[in-house]
Amino acid sequence: MIQTVLGALNGGFLQTLKLFAVTLAGALPLGLLLSFCSMSRFKPLRWLTRTLVWIVRGTPLMLQLLVVFFGPYYLFGMSLSNSYRFYAVIIGFSLNYAAYFAEIYRAGIESIPVGQYEAAEVLGYSKAQTFVKIILPQAVKNILPALGNEFVTMIKETSLASTFYIGELMYTRTLLMSTKFYAWQPLIIIAAIYFVVTFVLSKGIQYMEKRMSVSD
After folding, report:
1. Where are the alpha helices (DSSP H) in the chain?
2. Which residues fall within 8 angstroms of residue 206, CB to CB, at 6 or more apart?
3. Distance from C-alpha of 49 to C-alpha of 55, rounded to nearest angstrom
4. The whole model's pTM is what?
5. What is the pLDDT along the chain (216 residues), one digit of tens a residue?
6. How far apart, in Å, are the Cα atoms of 168 and each of 43, 106, 122, 130, 183?
7. Angle at CA of residue 199, ends 212 and 136, nearest 5°
8. How far apart, in whole angstroms, are the C-alpha atoms of residue 188 and residue 152?
9. Residue 125 burial by CB count (10 A; 0-12/13-18/19+): exposed, middle or buried?
10. How far is Cα 11 from Cα 170, in angstroms, rounded to an integer?
11. Main-chain phi, psi angles of 147, to 5 degrees
12. End-to-end CA gap in the chain
């Protein structure tokens, strides 16, 4: 029985990791772009971006996933194929976490003293060089704990994808319950998998924090 459950959950685990990795790849750069827009000197862009971030952070992720998932279907009649389901969920996750990352980035960038910008300008650095070589490394060190917390939360919230029949861990558990009548056994194994993954991820973030703090 254990082997059957583990074999079935293997595919769900890989799908969970895929959801996490693709969401991260989309949300991290999008969050940085949103943070730039929220700090823009062009007021309409700044307030539009901040309003968008407030709305996303102030509404449930499940609601956002439903809007992204069913919106194209009701507006344009798009079919709910397996590939559509996956990408709709990815877009929903990415937009949600990009909003959180944007605020984290903004806090980290604004925590850098203005004097460092002025010193870089005196040394002849361009704005792009100043950001990439001086500001960003320090900001990343400051925001790493907050980003790590969001990464851990993201891993756990991939379970919401089961609502849309994406074959991750929790959906695999539903299939096992309906076909093999395994009710509690998969739950225990899934809980252990989530714990191990989040524990390893947390320790990895802590290790990176220690390595980056050596230069302090």
Report:
1. 2-38, 43-58, 61-76, 82-110, 114-122, 127-130, 136-157, 169-179, 185-213
2. 148
3. 10
4. 0.88
5. 566 666 778 888 899 999 999 999 999 999 999 999 998 889 999 999 999 999 999 999 999 999 998 888 787 777 777 778 889 999 999 999 999 999 999 998 888 887 777 788 877 788 778 888 888 888 888 898 899 999 999 999 999 999 888 888 888 888 877 776 667 778 888 899 999 999 999 999 888 888 877 655
6. 42, 32, 53, 42, 17
7. 25
8. 19
9. middle
10. 11
11. -65, -40
12. 52
Cα–Cα dist 41/121, whole Å: 19
Length of the chain measured in residues: 216
CB-based contact 31:96 (threshold 8 Å): no
Give the alpha-carbon dihedral of 108, 111, 115, 120, to 10 degrees.
Answer: 0
**CA-closest candidate to residue 68, choices 34, 29, 28, 96:** 96
| 124: DSSP letter | T
Residue type for position 91: I
Q: Which residue has the tokens 């990791």?
A: 17
For residue 83, give both structure tokens: 């590939």
